[in-house]
Amino acid sequence: MQSMQQISSGVLSGGQNVPRPAVAPRNSPSPFKFLSSTSTSTLPHRSLVQICNAGFSSGSSGSSPSSDKKSNKKKARITRYLDVEDGSPQQSAEEFSGWIEMPDIDAIQSFVSKPIKPIILATGKAICLYKVGEQIFCSDANSTAYQYPLADANILGLKTGPAVESKLDGTVYDLATGRVMSWCPKNTPVRGFLGALKNKSEPIDLPIYPTKVEGRKVFVKLAKN
Fold first, then answer.
1. Considering the entire predicted model, what is its pTM?
2. Measured between alpha carbons, how far is 173 from 10 in angstroms, rounded to an integer?
3. Does one domain contain both 136 and 179?
């Protein structure tokens, strides 16, 4: 009978080695305890990577609720921006074409008391609207001779069509074309003096802008083609 000491040492009396029973590694949530009982030199590199990834991976691969809320807010904000951009092309196209609606101007009521309406646009440009019969004309707000305001000018009905006369220097302009019809006439003492100062000056036409009426709204085309 073999001695217990020989069995425990794993050697039989005949010199044969007795294989020890394999000891299974203890179950542990940490992969490093398993690695401590297994020689890492015998495991391929890919296995080690898989084990480490298994140990560090969390139970959920999705984003947190807070990050989802932030993402939804960003999407909603972007949607609002796109909605604003989708509504703007019509206004931009209208502005690009040069047609601008005249603020606080009614094609009928605004000209009841006076046929001339001076307007200062948001850009700072000053213009005058003139209503003659059913037609509305538009020009720069000041005369070209002495830059005198045309808000108090006289509207004349000539054979060639409606015209406007500057009260200061008496220059007359065709409202349809802006062409000078009379340049600084010397028909009063004051105009005689002003006209003498412009004897050597070439007549300067008055800038005229196209107009259109839609309903009771008045539009002026200020852009140059």
1. 0.58
2. 127
3. yes
